[in-house]
TrEMBL record, chains A, B:
One of its GO terms (molecular function) is CoA-transferase activity. It comes from the Bacteria. The keyword Electron transport does not apply. Keywords: Transferase. It comes from Pedobacter yulinensis. Belongs to the 3-oxoacid CoA-transferase subunit A family. This is Succinyl-CoA--3-ketoacid-CoA transferase. Gene3D superfamilies: Glutaconate Coenzyme A-transferase (3.40.1080.10). Pfam families: CoA_trans. InterPro entries: 3-oxoacid_CoA-transf_A, CoA_trans_fam_I, CoA_transf_BS, NagB/RpiA_transferase-like.
Automatic annotation (TrEMBL), chains C, D:
SUPFAM superfamilies: NagB/RpiA/CoA transferase-like (SSF100950). This is Succinyl-CoA--3-ketoacid-CoA transferase. SMART domains: CoA_trans (SM00882). Pfam families: CoA_trans. The keyword Transferase applies. Belongs to the 3-oxoacid CoA-transferase subunit B family. One of its GO terms (molecular function) is CoA-transferase activity. Keywords: Transferase.
Amino acid sequence: MIYKVVSSAQEAIADIPDGATLMLGGFGLCGIPENCIAALVARNVTNLTCISNNAGVDDFGIGLMLHKRQVKKMIASYVGENAEFERQLLSGELEVELIPQGTLATRCMAAGYGMPAIFTPAGIGTEIAEGKEIRQFNGKDYLMEMAFEADFAIVKAWKGDTAGNLVYRATSRNFNPVMAMAGKITIAEVEELVEPGELDPDHIHTPGIYVHRIFKGSGYEKRIEQRTVRKSESNEASAS
Amino acid sequence: MIYKVVSSAQEAIADIPDGATLMLGGFGLCGIPENCIAALVARNVTNLTCISNNAGVDDFGIGLMLHKRQVKKMIASYVGENAEFERQLLSGELEVELIPQGTLATRCMAAGYGMPAIFTPAGIGTEIAEGKEIRQFNGKDYLMEMAFEADFAIVKAWKGDTAGNLVYRATSRNFNPVMAMAGKITIAEVEELVEPGELDPDHIHTPGIYVHRIFKGSGYEKRIEQRTVRKSESNEASAS
Amino acid sequence: MLSKEQIARRIAKEIKNGYYVNLGIGIPTLVANYIPENIQVVLQSENGLLGMGPFPFEGEEDPDLINAGKQTITTLPGSSVFDSAMSFGMIRAQKVDLTILGAMEVSENGDIANWKIPGKMVKGMGGAMDLVASAKNIIVAMQHVNKAGESKLLPACTLPLTGVKCIKKIVTELAVLDVLPEGGFYLLERAPDVSVDYIRDATKGRLVVPDHVPAMDMA
Amino acid sequence: MLSKEQIARRIAKEIKNGYYVNLGIGIPTLVANYIPENIQVVLQSENGLLGMGPFPFEGEEDPDLINAGKQTITTLPGSSVFDSAMSFGMIRAQKVDLTILGAMEVSENGDIANWKIPGKMVKGMGGAMDLVASAKNIIVAMQHVNKAGESKLLPACTLPLTGVKCIKKIVTELAVLDVLPEGGFYLLERAPDVSVDYIRDATKGRLVVPDHVPAMDMA
C-alpha cells in the first residue's frame, strides 16, 4: 500500500496557497473537516474560493473563515444561518454562487469519474439555466452542467487507514465522498486512523486512490445545529 | 420498511415476458444471478435482449440461455469463452452489440442516477464512435453515450434484507450495483436474507429503493473460470 | 380553516402503501406524524438517508445523524445511508414516489417559487430545484394567502422560479386543489368551515370549481 | 531477444514508488512478479479492486474474488472493492498512474489495435477502450513481429483501432521504444543480443535511432 499519513492538519494544509479553490465536505455542520478549517484559519490563507454545500454558522465551520475574511467566493446550495456571511454578501465583500444541491453533488462526482459534464433537469426554466446549454432527451429538458474540480478537497471521515481508505459514519457522509473524488489534492481528516487491513475492503466508501493525505484529527466538537428531541414514551417533537 | 420478499426465483421472474430487455449482473461467472438464470431457462422465456458484461460459458451463466436459443440480442463488452455463442453469432441467429466495459457500467449508473446521457472518451477514433455525437471539453474529445434502462435488472448479492437493501462480497460486486439501479423492475437474489436492521445502514451497497423483489437463492455453484493458484511458500504462479 | 397540523394530516392521506417519500422543511416535516401505521412508507432525507425515524429521545442525539433540515433524527431498522450524489441520483431517477414541500407561490400551470425574494437575503435553493425538476409527484403544503392577505395561487409566479410545470397538488388551510394539465387550479375539497366563495376570493389564479365541492374529511 | 518474463521485468522498471497500476491480460500480468519490493505500488483490477495480491494458495481460492482476467486472486491489507462504474470512473479521471497492456499493432503516432481481427471471431474490447482513452501513461507489452514475421510497429494500424494517439512507450522482445509526440518510434534501448539493424528491419513504422542505443540493463 501507499503511505499517505501526514502528522497534523497544519502539515496537511501547509501548501494551500492564497487564492486556491477548496472543496469542503459536510452538510450544515455535520461531517465538516473541523481540524483543517481551524488550521486554515490559523494560517490565515486568504482569497479562497470555497465549494461547500453550506457556509457554516457565524462562529463555526466555514463561518470561522468568513469571519477572518479569508473567503473571496462561496459556491454553495444553501447559505442561511450566518449573519456575517449576509453582511459580507450585501456589502459586496463576498461573491456567492448558488447551485442546486444535487447539481453540486453530481458535478463533484463527475470530476471523480472523469466525466466533463452531466445533464440534470434541476434549474430548467429558472435563472439557474441562464447562459447554459439545454438539451432535450425523451421529451424532457436538461441542463448541461460542468464537472467541478478543486485544487484541494478537504473531507472528514470517521475512520481511515494509512493507505487513505475512508469510512464515513451515518449522515456525516453527505458530500464527503464525492468531494474526495474531485480534488487535485485530497486531504482527509479522520477520527480514527488504523493500519491497512483493519477496514473491511467491502465496506470502504472512498478508496485510497482518491486520497493524497490523511491524518488523525482531534478535539471534534461536532456541533448540532438543530437539536430536536422527543420526550420519552411520547411521539411529540420539540425543537430547542 | 417496505416488504419486497418473493418466495423463489420462479416467482421473481414469473412476469418477465418474451422479448423483454434484461440486465444481468456479474463479471465472467463471478456474481451472476444463478437462480434467476436457471428459472429463466426452465420457463423458456425467449426473444430476450440481455445486457451483461459477458455471455457466460457454454454450460453456465447466460450460456445456458444461449444454449436454449432464448437470447435474441446480447449487449456486452467481452464475449469470449463460449463456443455456442460464437456459432449463433456466425450463423446470424444472434445479434451482438459490443460496448466498452466502462461505458457499459456508466450507462447503467446514468439510468440509476436519472442522467439521460454521459460523456466518455472511450471509443473515440474507433468504430464505436460511428454515428455518435462527439463533444470536446478542455481540448479532449468525448462520446455522448445514452443511459441504459432495462425492463428487468437481475442481480446477485451476498446479503440482503426484506426491505431490499443489498450487500455484495468482494469482486462479485462488479456490475451488480449499477444494474440494480437501472432496472424498471429490479430483482435481487441473495445468499442470505435477513430482517431489517441486521445490515449496517452505513455499509449497504444498494439501498432498497432500487430493489423491487428479493429472495433467498440456493445451491450456488459459483463456478471458477480461471483457477490460478500458487504453491505454498513460493511466488510461482500456475494456471490450471 | 386548517391548522398546520391539519394540513399535514390531510396530506398524509395522499401517501400510499409502499411509497418512498421526501418531506421538505416546515409543514411537510409534520406529515410524518400522521402517516397511518398500517401502511409501509420510507422517508428519504436528501442529505443521504432512507428510513428516517422520529426525533431522538433527549440525551440520545447523534451529531452525525441529521435530516435535510439539520435536525437531529433517528433511523429505523432497514435504513440505509449514502452520499449526496446517490441521494439526488435516486431523486432524479424518480425512485422517490412523492415529494412534499412548501412554497411561496404556485402558478396555475404548476410553476413553483420557493427560494428567493428579490431584495431580501438569498439563502439558496438547497435541494428544492432538484426535487421539483425530478419528482414524478409533488404536493405543495402552503398557506393560501400571505401575511398581507394576497393570494399565493397565481396566474403566474411573480418571484424567481424554483421549477416549472411540476406541481400536481396543493393543500392549504382552505382547500385541496389539483393543478390541471391544461392549467388552472381544480378545487377538489374545501376546509370544513370554508365556503367555495371564500376560496374563490383567495385564489388569484384561474380556479376551476366543480358542481359539488366536498368538505375535507378530517377524521 | 527477451523472453516474456524479461519483457515483464523490463517494464517493471518503469513503475515508480506510489503508483497505482492497471495490468492487462498476458505479459502485463507477469509484471506484478517483478515490482521491486522497496517501492509502494497498488494494483488496480478493473472489475473493481484496488490492492490486488498474488494468486491464492491451492485450496484457498475464493470464487467471489477474481481479477479482470477472471483468475482467482487475493487481496492485500489496505485493499478496497468497488463497483464497475467507480472502477472505470477512477480510470477515466486518471487516478490510475500507469496502464500496461498488450497489443496486436501500434502505429507510429501512438494508435493501438488490440481487440478485433476482421473475419475472425470478435470477443469484444472489454475494458481496453476505456483504459487507452483515459490513461495518462500507457506502456504496451508486445511481440515486435507477428507469427508471420511481419512488423507490429506500423506507420498506421491495419486492424480496427482500440484507441488513438494514446501509447507512450512500447517494450518488445527486441527493444524499448518511445512514441514521439510528433510521430515515430524512438529507439531507447535494444535487447542485449539484438542489433539496431535487426530492430530496424523488424519495424515497419518510422524508427528514430539516436547515435547511441544502449543495451537494456536486465539486472
